[in-house]
């Protein structure tokens, strides 16, 4: 994966930049020692590493604004970082960048149950947002698998989803307002506790912009009252395609489960060994969850089970207790970690129309044989968001390259099926060079024009999202201007 | 007056490229947009391109009449969950609302409070920008973070960034049945407390409105019959301490009337739409000194009827939210502007985006600032 060469002019100014940053931040909020900056050399896409020039850990919107203003004046690229859990390399540094970590900004600023929102600093983790309102039986709906660690800043940057977004939507559907700091230090307040923008929907384009438009320091998030109860049912099938058909039939029936998750044999075994959730031994497993009162759950599950029976399941089992439900979900949410115990893996994130599940799964199986690399499939079947996990051996020369080529084939397959390259992880560096497979050059130009407006000097996370060749003239213009 | 009416996307692009003066962008022309004398109508770009009930997605050309889309969905037991308002009654306009118009104005109804706005259901767009380029963003799948989300940006941009040629939407199953709970309340403050209690309950309230003229707070529940009946009982019990509780059945007509603001239909005066934090609604509504009020979205949306030419924003002063002028004379629109002026930083970003997407300023100039 290519990254742009560090700008020697920036590297030469390291000492000046460091001094200026120290003037606006406390001593311990500026990291310059090489042994310490190394801790920020990668995110969860660990195949790629590069220590940054400097790391700053501001504690307020004002400090973020000061840092950005200085970096803007000095022409230093800034890579914003939440908790560093990006699977797409969204927080991968360059050697000439300042990493701006928001981890110290993790406070709750306002909780309002009457108006159903919470305002937080964005370094707060996803799960601890729910933690802050749980006592009153409220929750924050987006639930990425990394929710214990991932920061709201990253959720907003990547427009994160999760298992339960079939019913509740993804981050953008649950985001009411942000405090956004632009690269030149300007602070903009967008949205708030009211619904819908008055003018252009800037909130909509900021969410999912991968830290390229500004740094979000505070966010107003919609919170929801917890349902009275929830219960998953496990459905085992002896064929992936049949499971895919069952998903489509459930959706067509008019019932909208809160989640429909899919796992194939490889993942089922790995997750079962990890979480002991009592998953059946079969080719394909669906976890279907519904919510409501006990009686509502019974009645919805009866309808769903009736549909499932038409597809000759090898196992149909409702969770019998809250403890069992928790184990079922622990298994699912640990899927990536569990697969990591088998081997190195690359996790993909393409989305396809639900109706294409059977054909796409079949084709992935064929490609797996052609490339000689095993694939585990675990994904949000209800909305067609797939997570094929390609297993490879990082120590075996050529295996990573083979894996990447295989991954690219799968993502192209998703686009060909009418879907997209990434459903919830983001483009980062990982899918950057495939963007021209999904979009025409003019479509990407229109997206880059948005960045031109928010960050005219292209200093924020500049080498991400767009193919390097597409963004080159803009990035070079900045360097020439220095 | 000249009306450009392309029949294909390519023709639309050609016409835009050839523009030498600003145009008003129109769909069915039902939403009362004034502007340049010459118009560019997308109504000729019509037809459902793709509808897959099993994947809950529908793709249609922007000029497709909304009625046609709703009929196609109805036949499969599905619907547009964001319940788009029909402006014709309130604005006394004719014509046929189009799906492109709904999207361009991000039109959502009472269910917005639970299901989300039009923009939340928009999966993809094709459009022609101000220099005549055909562009696309998003797609037809429910989860998509591939590149920037220009889809949301286009929703509610009122044609100022581009002319929509095709939209892709997430649709949802229709509810088997609905029930409306009414609670008699003395004033707006009490009403908003009732609506907040309902919306903060686990019973999935899909409509929360208050019409001061009838004195009732209204809460809607939808779903399968057994579930609706259970939740209605629980909600009644929850709200009983707030006032006399009654039931109003499915009330499809009642919710349509709230959606379309029938209360102000045929009454003289300007109509404003104020988006606020729900608990602020009673005080802000009082400041409006309105001749008529209607509260939707649990109080988060206030419809206000005031004397023609009133500068309502001046009356309201500073508040968290925004006030949009929906019905007024052309001179009043010109004097006050349809949209609430934005803060300097946000206004600069919006202006920058308009300049990028419509560098010649030919699409609805002045409409959004």
Give the topology.
The complex is a heterodimer of chains A (482) and B (369).
Chain A (H helix, E strand, L loop, with lengths): L7 H5 L1 H11 L5 E2 L2 H4 L16 E3 L4 H14 L3 E4 L16 E4 L6 E5 L4 E5 L4 H8 L4 E2 L12 H7 L6 H4 L6 E7 L5 E5 L10 H5 L8 E8 L1 E2 L4 E8 L2 H13 L6 E6 H11 L8 E8 L2 H16 L5 E4 L3 H12 L1 H6 L3 E4 L9 H15 L3 E6 L7 E5 L6 H18 L18 H4 L2 H14 L13 H14 L1
Parallel strand pairs in A: 2-4, 3-4
Antiparallel strand pairs in A: 1-2, 5-6, 6-10, 7-11, 8-9, 8-10, 12-14, 12-15, 13-14, 13-17, 16-18, 17-18
Helix pairs in contact in A: 2-4, 9-14, 10-12, 14-15
Chain B lengths: L2 E2 L4 H9 L6 E3 L12 E3 L6 E5 L4 E5 L4 H10 L2 E2 L8 H4 L7 H6 L7 H4 L2 H4 E7 L5 E5 L11 H5 L8 E8 L1 E2 L3 E8 L3 H12 L5 E7 L4 E8 L1 H15 L5 E3 L4 H8 L10 E7 L4 H7 L4 E5 L4 E6 L5 H5 L4 E7 L2 H7 L7 H14 L12
Parallel strand pairs in B: 1-3, 2-3
Antiparallel strand pairs in B: 4-5, 5-9, 6-10, 7-8, 7-9, 11-13, 11-14, 12-13, 15-17, 15-18, 16-17
């Amino acid at each position: 994966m290519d990254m742009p060469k560090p700008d020697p002019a920036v590297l030469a100014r390291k000492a000046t930049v460091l001094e200026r940053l120290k003037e606006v931040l406390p001593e311990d909020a500026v990291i310059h020692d090489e042994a310490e900056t190394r801790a920020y050399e990668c995110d969860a896409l660990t195949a790629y590493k590069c220590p940054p020039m400097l790391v700053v850990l501001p504690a307020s919107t004002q400090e973020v604004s000061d840092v950005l203003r200085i970096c803007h004046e000095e022409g230093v690229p800034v890579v914003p970082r939440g908790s560093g859990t990006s699977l797409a390399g969204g927080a991968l540094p360059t050697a000439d960048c300042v990493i701006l970590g928001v981890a110290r900004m993790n406070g709750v600023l306002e909780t309002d149950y009457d108006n159903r929102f919470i305002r937080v600093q964005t370094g707060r983790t996803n799960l601890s947002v729910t933690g802050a309102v749980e006592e009153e039986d409220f929750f924050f709906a987006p639930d990425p698998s990394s929710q214990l660690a991932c920061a709201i800043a990253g959720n907003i940057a990547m427009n994160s989803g999760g298992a339960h977004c079939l019913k509740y939507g993804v981050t953008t559907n649950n985001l009411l307002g942000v405090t956004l700091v632009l690269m030149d230090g300007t602070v903009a307040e967008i949205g708030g506790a009211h619904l819908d923008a008055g003018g252009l929907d800037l909130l909509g384009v900021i969410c999912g912009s991968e830290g390229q438009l500004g740094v979000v320091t505070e966010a107003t998030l919609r919170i929801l009252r917890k349902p009275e109860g929830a219960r998953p049912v496990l459905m085992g099938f002896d064929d992936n395609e049949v499971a895919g058909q069952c998903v489509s039939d459930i959706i067509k029936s008019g019932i909208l489960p809160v989640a429909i998750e899919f796992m194939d044999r490889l993942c089922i075994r790995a997750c079962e060994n990890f979480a002991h959730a009592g998953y059946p031994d079969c080719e394909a497993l669906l976890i279907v969850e519904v919510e409501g009162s006990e009686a509502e759950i019974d009645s919805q599950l009866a309808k769903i089970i009736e549909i499932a029976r038409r597809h000759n399941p090898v196992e149909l089992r409702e969770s019998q207790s809250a403890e069992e439900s928790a184990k079922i979900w622990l298994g699912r949410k640990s899927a990536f970690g569990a697969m990591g115990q088998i081997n190195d893996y690359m996790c993909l994130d393409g989305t396809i129309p639900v109706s294409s599940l059977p054909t796409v799964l079949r084709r992935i199986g064929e490609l797996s044989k052609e490339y000689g690399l095993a694939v585990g499939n675990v994904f949000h079947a209800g909305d067609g968001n797939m997570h094929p996990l390609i297993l490879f051996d990082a120590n075996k020369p050529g295996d990573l390259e083979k894996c990447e080529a295989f991954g690219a084939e799968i993502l192209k397959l998703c686009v060909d099926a009418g879907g997209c390259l990434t459903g919830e992880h983001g483009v980062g560096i990982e899918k950057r060079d495939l963007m021209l497979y999904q979009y025409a050059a003019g479509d990407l130009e229109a997206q880059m024009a948005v960045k031109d407006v928010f960050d005219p000097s292209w200093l924020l996370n500049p080498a991400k999202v767009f193919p390097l060749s597409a963004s080159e003239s803009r990035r070079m213009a900045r360097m020439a201007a220095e | 007056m000249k009306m450009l009416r392309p029949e294909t996307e390519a023709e639309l692009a050609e016409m835009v490229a050839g523009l030498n003066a600003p145009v008003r962008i129109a769909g069915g022309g039902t939403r009362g947009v004034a502007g340049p004398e010459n118009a560019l109508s997308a109504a000729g770009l019509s037809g459902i391109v793709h509808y897959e009930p099993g994947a809950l997605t529908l793709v249609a050309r922007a000029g497709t009449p909304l009625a046609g889309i709703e009929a196609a969905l109805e036949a499969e037991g599905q619907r547009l969950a964001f319940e788009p308002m029909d402006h014709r009654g309130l604005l006394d306009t004719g014509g046929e609302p189009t799906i492109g118009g709904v999207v361009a104005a991000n039109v959502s109804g009472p269910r917005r409070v639970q299901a989300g706005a039009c923009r939340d259901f928009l999966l993809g767009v094709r459009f022609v920008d101000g220099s005549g380029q055909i562009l696309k963003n998003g797609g037809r799948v429910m989860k998509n973070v591939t590149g920037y989300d220009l889809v949301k940006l286009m929703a509610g941009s009122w044609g100022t960034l581009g002319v929509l040629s095709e939209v892709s939407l997430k649709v949802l199953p229709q509810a088997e049945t609905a029930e409306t709970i009414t609670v008699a309340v003395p004033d707006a403050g009490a009403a908003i407390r009732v609506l907040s209690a309902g919306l903060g309950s686990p019973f999935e309230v899909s409509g929360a409105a208050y019409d001061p003229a009838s004195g009732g707070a209204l809460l809607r529940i939808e779903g399968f019959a057994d579930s609706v009946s259970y939740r209605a009982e629980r909600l009644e019990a929850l709200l009983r301490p707030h006032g006399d509780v009654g039931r109003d059945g499915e009330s499809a007509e009642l919710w349509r009337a709230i959606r379309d603001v029938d209360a102000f239909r045929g009454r003289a005066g300007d109509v404003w739409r104020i988006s606020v934090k729900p608990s602020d609604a009673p005080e802000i509504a009082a400041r409006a000194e309105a001749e008529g009020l209607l509260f939707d979205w649990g109080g988060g949306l206030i419809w206000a009827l005031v004397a023609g030419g009133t500068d309502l924003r001046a009356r309201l002063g500073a508040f968290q939210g925004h006030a949009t002028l929906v019905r007024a004379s052309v001179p009043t629109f010109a004097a006050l502007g349809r949209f609430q002026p934005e803060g300097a930083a946000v206004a600069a970003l919006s202006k920058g985006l308009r300049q990028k997407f419509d560098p010649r300023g030919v699409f609805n100039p002045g409409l959004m600032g």
